[in-house]
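Input.
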Amino acid sequence: MATKTETKADEIELGAYPTEAPAPGPSVPATPGSTSTASLDTATATGREVPSLPPVDGGRAAWSFLIAATVIETVVFGIPFSIGVLHNYWATHMFPGHEGTLTLAATLQTGLIYMSIAVLGPVLTAFPHLGRPSQIVGLIVSTAAFISSAFVTSAPQLIGTMGVLFPFASALYLPCATLLFEWFQKRRGMAGGILYSGTGVGGTVMPFIMDALLTRLGYKATMIAVGVAYGAINAAALVFIRRRIPLPSRAEAVGPARRRIDWAVARTWAFWSGVLVLFLSSLGNFNPTLWMPTFADTVGAKKPGGVALVSIMNAASVPGLLMTGWLSDRLPTKLIVFLNCLVGALAAALPWGMGTSTAPLIVFSVVWGLTALSFSSLWTPIITRICQDDPALPTLVFGTFCFLRGIGNFTSGPISTQLLKSSSFKGAVGAYGSTNFGPVLVYTAATVFAAAVAGAFFPA
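Output.
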């Protein structure tokens, strides 16, 4: 005999949302024994009895999912972090004099990854059965982007390959980030920290790998080799990316194939305060990694130089992401958001702002990596608070956050370029007055500090 809870579970799995308000709790079903969602472990979307689902927060299935998702995160986002190495090679060895076109190709790569996730979010929320096919298409197209870019004969062709085709990797990646909400509950912050630490690992390691391969093998062989390795590694990891709660087959589903999206979430304060935090932090987040090589050259910092300082930032973000995720399971989200953004803003204002020598720039790079570059670990607890008990919403909200992140990526270059033309801080102390970076420093610190203030108002 089906219970009322089992009926509600059936409705969620089929996408027919219940009329009553959801009970407070995590945004995804819990382990067997949970008062509100235990029936999900004994009934599928069609209501028939099945063996218990794998446990959350641990077990072979949960950990294999998390490891595989982290591998995909590392590989997919390690490539954009090495785009500076490729950009330099394109400009010096292949297409000198086409700086604008090459910069566009490099900028599109990261920006379109975030923007395409924003488009895919609502699509996969409405049509969850498309999750696996979209991952396969994303893997094939992004792999083809690498291999085809080995045979380009003009700079505009790089826009089509690495700038437009590679961002299809977003379809491969998106389910990795959102199915995390099914596999982890009480340890979700920790799991998110592990997942997002892949970006820091990729950003630290991939530039050196790419530079070494270009030096030894040349461009064509490097792109083919990296493309084949990229496809093989992600294909192997994709085997372990699966749902904890299976969707009903199309033949079993009793209702429309399209899941109704509950847009009521957009009327909550949690949603809009989260949006404000993400938007403000994204405006300044990209500036240090974008401009540190140029800034280091301007002030004469050589050991380490600008590229090494960016690597230090990315390396510091790995323990930063893990620590931030671990703390988010134990402390209020608003407190962690506030402290993360506040310390990041102070780092931009002080050690970077006064960074006319190597020592303060190293301090800044470490602190920035531990805080601002580790902010993505806080996406998980923020999304959990926003989505409450609705398992369909994390994909939608995650897509919205990626859209905001994409805005920050696209605007950071043009805004900071215009700010560099200002001489309003000439004569001020430290790097504010001795370089033309004063307005960029203030803009970066101010936007991240504003995110800290907004975070203080995030609901408990």
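Residues 1-50 have pLDDT under 50 and may be disordered.
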